[in-house]
Amino acid sequence: MGRRNISHIRRAEYAAAAYRTLMKLGLQGTSLARVAEEAGASKANVLHYFQSKEALLAAALRHANSVLLKEAVSLLKEAQTPWERIYAVLETNLSPTSFRSDVAHAWISLCAGVPHITTYQRIQTLIYARMRSNLIGPLRSLLSEQDAILMADLLTTAIDGIWLRCGLSLDGLSQEAARAQLDAVLDARLPDSEDRCRARSRMADVSRIVAKAYRN
To answer: In a 10 Å sphere around its CB, with 0-12 CB exposed, 13-18 middle and 19+ buried, how is residue 89 labelled?
Structure first.
């Protein structure tokens, strides 16, 4: 195995360990030493691949996004109609592998650094741009251009709020409650229909299958 491959594997391992540490201890409790302990490595070894906590947490943010991205790709491949593509995006953000209070805690911790750290800003900008684009495309089939853009922005804002609620509420937020809130946003401009109901049900089923596959 080449040196580059070993380096890639180690960086991925430490990024995942940093993300797990964030879920357990939050931003204040996450240090290079704690991440090294989580990874079963020395702090010096972590520093060999990441020269600062900021660089390590940027890798953790990319790792967190990669988990959602893999599920999004899987769901979008199965989507066959505009409504199914819309619900594929929504279900990705409500996946049982990610939509949990501990994951939301980690996401909130990382997002707190976005206004101050350029690397975090770039990563978060790419995440939002991709989600917004994945929504605007199918929404154009159902709404005018202006309304499609507005609805995509409303949905992405609602998703942020739902994740904040999941992370900050002592009781968290159930998937069903989150789905109902996102459906209420869609209801503002789009009436319910048989196509929409079928898409909602089918993509929820596909999401459960995909999430189970990733857990295994």
So the answer is: buried
Question: How far is the C-alpha of 178 from the C-alpha of 170, rounded, in Å?
Answer: 16
For the chain, which residues make up each domain, given as ranges? 53-215
122-170 confidence digits (pLDDT tens) = 888 888 899 999 999 999 999 999 999 999 999 999 999 999 998 887 7
**Tens of pLDDT, residues 50-64:** 888 888 888 888 888
pTM for the full predicted model: 0.85
CATH 3.40.50.2300 fits 53-215, yes or no: no
Helix (H, G, I), strand (E, B) or coil at 26: helix
What is the structure's pLDDT at 1?
A: 47
Do the Cβ atoms of 10 and 23 come closer than 8 Å? no
Helices (H), the chain: 3-29, 32-39, 43-49, 53-78, 82-92, 101-111, 118-139, 145-168, 175-187, 194-215
Name which of 167, 163, 189 is nearest 178 in CA terms.
163
Cβ contact 26:105 at 8 Å? yes
Percent of the chain whose predicted confidence (pLDDT) is above 70: 96
